[in-house]
């Protein structure tokens, strides 16, 4: 993030002990190292300021002696304003929906806070009436239920006792991760939330966040790569981007249960003799690796150069990629436990290798979400989680400006085959074109699969970027309608990306729904462009156009 500069224009007089400051004096001060020093609070300073605010405002934040907090993320704005995001426990149990963000003035004084829930967190007992083994059985059955027709193997489930404050009055619950493998050996996983008193299922969601969709790449043409020389050969490892690298999974899969891996698919580092990688065809296994590494590079650069975020976690550390995962695996996913991206090769008839640029941007944006708002992967929050990856993944594609894969508002258009029956996975201008997604908000949208409820936010982002009506952009025809018959004028995708990222990292919490997302993005637009600005008003108009009022 660039430093604030002091510019001296004309003559300015400062009355200090009766001595007038001359232009020369001001210029000397401006040129001194101290004048150019970044005086914003450090991360540690922001955390210290926020800790004082927690003590002073414990009551309004719902904090009691039975609760503890831990810092998840810190944002310090250019003007020194600080935003510290917390997770919460109750009697040492994680609280789902207990997260909150404290906003501090540049001086470190408390301004406000955003809470995932305002429910008073107190329980008469933290002793469950439903046993852990029973909760595990219920979760395994739930995993089987969503994989009907397939014989699952290596099924395991690990329950964790939590306090659920996301679904009404806080209650004791089991959060159980059920994992296994399908008949081809590919991973399946589902998280099930069970009432620890009655055994009733509160919620459930997929645990693998998916997008179901120089080197010669499969999709992006010939692309530049930063590599590492090792002896007489080169490694597909980028020392300029936190040592991100790409390896071959050798068509194997992970065998992991609850963060403990008994075996992991390898990530055998790709090497090359002449530093010219791939052939642009699937016959060369390194071609897919070129796409994966290129996608990582562009995603890293987008977050760094546009948003000032260094790496997925904001700590400058690189992730890694595994390609050729599983057998005909029609998926790609980000995994926090390995801090890595994993790509399947597709089945050849429905999907090709899932290493396209917008897929990479989508999946790694799940990693950014997990380190910031941590939007719960179900209901409206889950739709916003998926939409965040679609929106920011699309911004990565536009940012890359690759003539072989030009920017568009289609998701996964490069990976679909004729057997899929549609030219893309999802369509941001009119999400319902995929046959399942919602164009507009309704009270039932939270009941949809998160890949379909995401349509409301995707439609919002398209309208805010490009406006309503028919148009052709980069050779792709779009025709975006509005719920209220209004005409929306776009503000440009660059501004939309900045508004959404700030809303995600500063204002959204794990329980944010569409109504709260409207508020979060309006707050972000106000921060960036001012209350009552054209951008601020356009955000409100675009949300109204998708029936979020």
Compact overview of the structure:
29% of the residues lie in helices and 24% in strands. The chain is an alpha+beta fold.
Topology, pairings included?
Layout: E1 15-16, E2 19-20, H1 23-31, H2 33-36, H3 43-56, E3 67-76, E4 82-90, E5 93-96, E6 100-104, E7 110-115, H4 132-145, E8 153-164, E9 171-181, E10 187-195, E11 201-206, E12 215-216, E13 222-223, E14 228-230, E15 233-235, E16 237-238, E17 244-248, E18 255-257, E19 260-263, E20 268-269, E21 271-272, H5 285-307, E22 320-325, E23 332-335, E24 340-344, H6 357-371, H7 379-400, E25 410-411, E26 426-427, H8 450-453, H9 455-466, E27 469-473, E28 476-480, H10 493-507, H11 514-529, H12 534-545
Helix pairs in contact: 5-6, 5-7, 6-7, 7-9, 7-10, 9-10, 9-12, 10-11, 11-12
């Amino acid at each position: 993030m660039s430093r604030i500069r002091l510019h001296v224009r004309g003559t300015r007089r400062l009355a200090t002990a009766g001595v007038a400051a001359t232009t020369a004096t001001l210029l000397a001060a401006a040129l001194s190292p101290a004048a150019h020093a970044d005086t914003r609070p450090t991360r540690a300073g922001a955390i210290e300021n926020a800790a004082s605010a927690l003590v002073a405002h414990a009551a309004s934040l719902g904090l009691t002696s039975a609760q503890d907090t831990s810092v998840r993320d810190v944002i310090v704005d250019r003007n020194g304003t600080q935003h510290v995001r917390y997770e919460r426990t109750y009697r040492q149990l994680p609280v789902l929906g207990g997260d909150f963000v404290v906003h501090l003035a540049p001086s470190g004084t408390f301004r406000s806070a955003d809470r995932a829930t305002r429910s008073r967190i107190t329980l008469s007992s933290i002793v469950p009436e439903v046993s852990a083994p029973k909760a595990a059985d219920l979760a395994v059955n739930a995993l089987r239920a969503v994989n009907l027709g397939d014989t699952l193997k290596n099924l395991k489930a690990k329950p964790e006792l939590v306090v659920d404050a996301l679904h009404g009055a806080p209650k004791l619950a089991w959060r159980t991760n059920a994992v296994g493998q399908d008949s081809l050996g590919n991973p399946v996983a589902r998280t099930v939330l069970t009432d620890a008193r009655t055994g009733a299922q509160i919620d459930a969601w997929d645990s693998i966040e998916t997008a179901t969709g120089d080197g010669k790449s499969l999709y992006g043409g010939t692309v530049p790569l930063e590599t590492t020389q090792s002896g007489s050969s080169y490694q597909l490892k980028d020392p300029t981007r936190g040592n991100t690298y790409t390896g071959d999974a050798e068509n194997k899969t992970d065998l992991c249960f609850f963060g403990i891996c008994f075996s992991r698919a390898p990530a055998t580092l790709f090497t090359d003799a002449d530093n010219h990688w791939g052939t642009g065809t699937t016959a060369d296994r390194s071609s897919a690796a070129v796409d994966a590494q290129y996608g990582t590079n562009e995603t890293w650069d987008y977050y760094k150069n546009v948003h000032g975020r260094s790496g997925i976690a904001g700590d400058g550390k690189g992730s890694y990629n595994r390609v050729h995962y599983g057998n005909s695996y029609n998926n790609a996913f980000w995994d926090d436990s390995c801090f890595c991206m994993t790509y399947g090769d597709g089945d050849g008839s429905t999907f090709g290798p899932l290493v396209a640029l917008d897929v990479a941007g989508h999946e790694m944006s799940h990693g950014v979400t997990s380190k910031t708002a941590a939007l719960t992967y179900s209901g409206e929050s889950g739709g916003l989680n998926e939409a965040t990856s679609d929106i920011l993944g699309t911004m990565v594609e536009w940012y890359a400006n690759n003539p072989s894969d030009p920017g568009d508002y289609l998701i996964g258009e490069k990976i679909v085959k004729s057997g899929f029956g549609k030219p893309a996975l999802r369509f941001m201008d009119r999400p319902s074109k995929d046959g399942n997604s919602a164009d507009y908000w309704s009270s039932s949208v939270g009941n949809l699969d998160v890949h379909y409820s995401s349509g409301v936010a995707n439609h919002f982002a398209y309208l805010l970027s490009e406006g309503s009506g028919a148009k052709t952009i980069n050779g792709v025809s779009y025709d975006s309608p509005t719920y209220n018959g209004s005409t929306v004028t776009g503000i440009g995708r660059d501004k939309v990306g900045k508004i959404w990222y700030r809303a995600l990292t500063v204002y959204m919490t794990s329980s944010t729904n569409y109504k709260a997302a409207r508020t979060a993005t309006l707050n972000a637009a106000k921060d960036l462009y001012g209350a009552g600005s054209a951008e601020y008003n356009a955000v409100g108009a675009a949300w109204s156009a998708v029936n979020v009022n």
